[in-house]
Amino acid sequence: MITAQLPWMAPEAAFAALAGPGVAFLDSAAPGGPRSSVSYIGLKPHATLALGSAPYAALRRWMQVHRPAVLPDWPLPFKGGAIGWLGYDAARAAAGVQTRFLSVPGLPGGWFGLYTTLLGFDYAARTLHYLGPQAQLADITARLAAPSTTPALPAIAWAAEMDRATYLTRHERLRAYIAAGDVYQANFTLRFTAPRLAGATLPALHLALRRLSPAPFAACIQADSFGLASASPERFLRLHPDGRMESRPIKGTAPRHENPAQDAANAAALAQNTKERAENLMITDLLRNDLGQVCATGSIQVPELFAVEPYAQAHHLVSAVTGRLKPGLDAFDLLEATMPGGSITGAPKRRAMQVIDELEAGPRGAYCGAMAWIGFDGAMDSAIIIRTVTATADTLYAQAGGGITWDSSAPAEYEEAMLKIFPLLALGHG
């Protein structure tokens, strides 16, 4: 294995030149944002793993088997390891919560590739780094230098599984559960599906989505016939090799506006919105409770609470929770203690997942799970799978929703879900 520095080029252009089955693009696509600092392209995975039951133990064993004797010395946080995703349904099942739905056809519970051939893009330094075999460098360099284009997407015929009237009715059923004390909050979503036509490739979907909705934790992860194209704004878990970790749950939304004064007013109103702040606080506390299972006593802190962050379509309330893992625990223990994430389940988590299963129209599959890189050195960074198109061989899925509390308005929550899903439904329409 060697490391080399290549001439700088835009990550999306490099991805367009190299994209294909097995290629993973971790795309920090929100320019200038504090968490849009490094992007990665993983090439030629030398092993892959489809996940089913006991996903955390399976991932740990798989990475232990493939861990190299010597770790590379290169300047970016991800120094080789696994890239992939674990879906909501697999995490729900691992948590012991049953479902009334069959699995999404043609989609495993999760998928990871093992990558030791990487391109890393450091935005601040404007440097492009190569890690991999010497023998592959000339071919990769030539492909990067050659002109490349991504064909336009075909028209995508999205169809809602739940119409507005049904959403409003089920929203009120959820509020009845809240009134009865079953849950304090639950994340209720609606799903759209479309036939996957020829030309709706994952690279084409991702590059179109990043133009509409650039996001700090975007990704395109492609297996042979299935994968994800994501514009996720939400960090789930970041873990350093020394055990320090951070999570940044999102709860609270306000629309962007083309008029700067109105846009600023929307952000200021969100910052003071009592309902949105209460929603965010509930999920922050839930996450602190989850982390208490695996973090050292006294290490869990909340250095940011109710920060307003701007994204392409919306302002969001974001909090930060930090901690340090107990000695002897690892990224897989951290994932097992926290998945599915609190921001896309509710409080209390187990009952919220049961209510979600009763009221939603179908399985979530990968949506609301987590996509991640997991390094051989023990580090990890991950994002919640939201603002994402899931693709199987013949079907596309897009989903969005929000956290429902007693103070929620059904029409307003429906409009918020449509605001979030708009870039996905706009794909294939010019």
DSSP E strands, number: 22
CATH class: Alpha Beta
CATH architecture: 4-Layer Sandwich
Contiguous low-pLDDT stretches (5 residues minimum) are: none
Shape descriptor: globular
The largest pleated sheet is described as: 12 strands, antiparallel
Overall pLDDT score: 95
N- and C-termini, Cα separation: 43 Å
Structural class: alpha+beta
User: Rg to the nearest angstrom?
Assistant: 21 Å
Number of helices: 11
CATH topology: Anthranilate synthase
Summarize the structure.
By secondary structure, this protein is an alpha+beta fold. Helix content is 31%, strand content 31%.
Structure description:
- The strands form two sheets. Strands 1, 2, 3, 7, 8, 9, 10, 11, 12, 18, 21 and 22 form a twelve-stranded antiparallel β-sheet that branches. Strands 4, 5, 6, 13, 14, 15, 16, 17, 19 and 20 form a ten-stranded antiparallel β-sheet that branches.
- Strand 13 (235-239) and strand 14 (244-247) form a beta hairpin.
- The chain is 31% helix and 31% strand.
- It has a single domain, classed as Anthranilate synthase (4-Layer Sandwich).
- The protein is built from eleven helices and 22 strands.
- It has helices at 11-18, 55-66, 88-94, 134-145, 164-179, 202-212, 260-272, 274-291, 331-338, 349-359, 410-425; strands at residues 2-6, 24-27, 38-43, 47-51, 81-86, 110-115, 117-122, 127-132, 159-160, 185-195, 217-222, 227-232, 235-239, 244-247, 250-255, 301-310, 314-324, 346-347, 370-375, 380-384, 388-391, 395-404.
- By secondary structure, it is α+β, with helices and mostly antiparallel strands.
